[in-house]
Amino acid sequence: MIKSELIQKIASTNQHLSHKDVEQIVNVIFDEIISALARGDRVELRGFGAFTVRRRDARIGRNPRTGEAVEVEEKFVPFFKTGKELRERLNRNDGVDL
Questions:
Q1: Using CA atoms in the order 72, 52, 81, 29, what is the torsion angle rounded to 10 degrees?
Q2: Strand 43-45 versus strand 49-56 pairing type
Q3: What residues pair up with 78 in beta bridges, in sequence order?
Q4: What's the rounded Cα separation, in Å, for the pair 26 and 21?
Q5: What pLDDT digit, counting tens, does each position of 42-62 carry?
Q6: Whole-model pTM?
């Protein structure tokens, strides 16, 4: 599912909200998650999962084309850990489609 499909799904199930309002709500939620992660905060959505930031150390990598050694700088990457409810739902074997 892409962002526009998410917006469409929410708008169709909440007809009292305009498509534009739903789009703005979704954008605000994503912007807040991004801002929190940029500050180094953890974002937890109970039952769904938690977003955190992990640091990757600087290292010497290899250019896959030439095999030449390349310095890769330290960087920070987002990490998502699924929540218990999401994991259980994905692994449920009751014949119900997700």
A1: -120
A2: antiparallel
A3: 53
A4: 9
A5: 999 999 999 999 999 999 999
A6: 0.78
Tokens 């119900």 sit at which residue?
96
Pairwise CA distance, residues 92 & 98, whole Å: 10
- Count of all residues that appear for the chain in the document: 98
Q: Which two tokens stand for residue 34?
A: 């991004």
How far CA 53 is from CA of 3, 10, 35, in Å, comes to 22, 28, 12
Q: How many CB atoms lie within 10 A of CB 91?
A: 7
Contact 56, 77 (CB under 8 A): yes
Query: Does 94 score more than 70 pLDDT?
Result: no
CA distances from 48 to 62, 90, 98 (A): 36, 11, 14
| Amino acid identity for residue 45 in this structure | L
